[in-house]
Queue: 2 jobs
Job 1
Amino acid sequence: MASSSHWERGWDVTFVSEETTTETDLTALVATYSALLFRVAHSILRNRAESEDVVQDVFLRVLEHQLKLPAIRDLRVWLVRITWNLAIDRRRRIRPDQLDEPFAESLVARTAPADQALSDARQVVATLREIERLPQPERHALLLSAIDELSITEISTILHRSESAVRALLFRARTRLRERLEKQESLEKGKSA
Amino acid sequence: MSPQPPNTYPAAHPDARIDQVLHALRTTEAPSGLEQRIAARLAQAAEARTQSAITNPTTFSYVTVILNAVKDPRILLARAPRYWAAAAALTLLIALTTLTLLHRTPSTTARTLPTALTPTPVRGLEGAGLQSRHNAPIRTAALATEGISPSASQPSQTATTSTEQQDPDAIALAETLAPSRPAPPLPLTAQEHLLLAATRPGQPIEIAELDIARAPFLRAAAEARETASINHYAKSLLAPFALADALSPTTFSQPQETSTPAPPPLPNASSN
């Protein structure tokens, strides 16, 4: 469950005065946004069951605040933001190793030899660990950029930053991550040699 | 393994590994039946809320409904049949507030007027001009707020006290613009004239003489200083005499005898 501060913050940013008065159909919201919200939660949690729980929590909150929905300008960004905050809150209670290793194993080819699959899975886990070690703004920008449906404008709205700042964060995240992975790789080569 | 993103890096390149992870996150498919499970949970939650509202009506918060209705009256209008008690309470609250505001009587508590609104006699033409110039608009403005003409309010100043009590800004403004009062040009007394004449030359002895009772030591010191100066003057006058006396004490110390010339020897005796 997210803290109230996150929830209220979500309202504060996207809540605008009465512009649209159409009644929002919750079922249509579920059909439209559940897959996107699942991917958003999964980019943080990397666990399908946990991500699904987060998406369900999001729609429960939407049900609780259904009266305010007509006043929300960009419902899509608002929902993504709630999902993002709920996933971050849930992530704090879970050890990353519990989530990253099964996800990495799911990415490894089943047809590959066992030693190759183990090596690939280890590389994926190392990459995920380095992503988690990034500074928080860079990490969030990088993970949100992985979701195709979100534009830079939407990411900037979610992260409370300008578009240029988001682009700079993405560039720095990629650069830092690349450098760390190269350094790690050279260390492993030195050990094996 | 999920389909790899098209890139030009070798598999072990860091960028390739980053793209692999991001692509995997990007292409994650929602589990099948997600929408149905969400819909079922929402229906369950909505039913639970309805059940709790029916079985436990005492937990119904009228305050919350009233606060929401104040924010958006359409909520109350839409749900008035359901929340009839809340609507009645809100109506009663509005009526009480209106009555309180309409029948609010001005306070007649006696209170001292600020200096700007209590004209005090100021000696001198300049002070009077300042006072009239500053007091007139403030007083008029303060009275205009309560709908009283300045001429009508002259006899009773208690009517203005309620306005002043209610409007601290007007009081602060009036006190800020209140004219300063210069010292009245009273004639000097004889002692003050004497003091003025004594202080201008800067003679401390004369100042001490003005106030012997309060500063006797000044008087004593002045007298001692004067005696010393007289003695010094007298000594300086007698100094040549003292020097001469020291050089030939007989000349001056002994009483001078009358020098009678010795009688010439008698011719008889010499001849004897």
Job 2
Amino acid sequence: MNAKGKAFRYGDNVDTDVIIPARYLNTSDAKELASHCMEDIDGTFVKNVQQGDLIVAERNFGCGSSREHAPLAIKTAGVSCVIAASFARIFYRNSINIGLPILECPEAVQGIDSGDIVSVEFSTGTITNETTGKSWAAEPFPPFIQEMIAADGLINYLRKGVQA
Amino acid sequence: MSMTMSQKILAAHAQVDEVRPGQLIMADLDLVLGNDITSPVAIKEFAKFGIDSVFDKSKIALVPDHFTPNKDIKAAHQCKMLREFASDMEIENYFEIGQMGIEHALLPEQGLVDAGDLIIGADSHTCTYGALGAFSTGVGSTDMAAAMATGKAWFKVPSALRFNLTGKFSPWVSGKDLILHIIGMIGVDGALYKSMEFTGVGVSSLTIDDRFTVCNMAIEAGAKNGIFPVDEVALAYLADHCKRKPVVFQADADAEYDHTYEIDLSKLRPTVSFPHLPDNTRTIDEVGEVKIDQVVIGSCTNGRISDLRVAAKILDGKKVDPRVRTIVFPATQEIYLQAMDEGLLRIFVKAGAVVSTPTCGPCLGGHMGILAEGERAVATTNRNFVGRMGHVESEVYLASPAVAAASALTGYISNPETIEEN
Ligand code: SF4
């Protein structure tokens, strides 16, 4: 599985309240959530994002609440991968559990500007800025998590275990 | 190998002799929690298992506390999903409006939390129960669904930061000031992926409510969990609330910590977090002139009886500034009743505050106290992110109940030390 698209660039501590404000949490409908994705930090995100685009952010992306609605909104908005210098731990966990690819790579984050075309090879963790030609190697997931992603998330992973 | 207190609880629940930081484990859970925002997603995921019962109907707690009493039709629908699922699965700990309280105050009060427990909740402030010596942490809805089906969850074993406490608080300083001070010191990602373990001779001077407040905000430093040793104060609380026998884990004397911070409680000042991150702290002496429109006293951080007592002590016989909307929301029905019996609710109403039913309401900008553009609130809650309590151009200042109550009287962020008692 690979990702390729335009980068939307953000700073430190992008929290779950700006990714999907609580005022929209009276629904769990993924499409409706996606239509408000990033609204409080970037009002034009939903209008401009296209299938396959990436979010690139600095430290502690996804801090705050445990709302799975946050990675769900990002995934449903069409984002193929989030690259950050670091992630808040519940967001990290939720993303893996729902099958939103996320990679930690501070060096890549420094080398990517808003609007750059970025590609990612998930098997190797290679991140390439197609606009500048630079590439980086992100830490690949540990085997346990790779298995979970291969099974398309936690629920399927566990169901396979139950059946085996 | 030596282990921290958190690591010992994880090892025991994974049925292994020892765990190392970074290790991935599957562990048995003592309690699984969800609320009216996170459970509907979990219920949909749970359906994918195609099973007709949960792993243990006594070990799941469903609390419709966020948008309740139902704030609109959509919220009513989400709560209905919760209610029907609870009924179908015969969940023993479903709390309907009338018994419902804010989950992290409610579960310990109802005796659902014991020392040594391993608890996950689809709510980030599940870390609150570390106050009673449990390992508890927030997860998402998919984890909750899997846990309701299997009784298990996966964990990456955390390393730990130690906070060694000495001394005692001065008057008007409380657990809130301690945790705001710590977050200001280490930053909102200062404990990312780690446990925060509190130790030292200063622990014994902290009330159980102080400890709940401190552990509640461990997540605001990025931590996986916060935890206190189980001493006489914790055991006394457990004896009053929990029917099960406490299982006391202790960190090994030579347990390894990534860092140890020394904190003298007597040196702490009332502390305020400025917008828009909890680590943007200033002591009350550095606050300057900040005019406010609203004061919110309550939440899973500071909506307990001791918090209401402090606020009432400051407001007793006085009037809040007429330009400041002051909203008090006790965290549970029991706290509400106790506040009524002690005459605290009368003090609030006489002072010109409103008292709300237990709900998360204003804390997350849900309902019952939303801010308009350009407005400022002092809140005893735990987050001051952009738009947290309303409009994106509004501001939330986090503080203790003492600072919040003092500010309600003056209309500016104020030092409780300067308020004369009646
Ligand atoms: S009171 Fe606020 S922080 Fe606590 S559970 Fe409710 S919304 Fe979350």
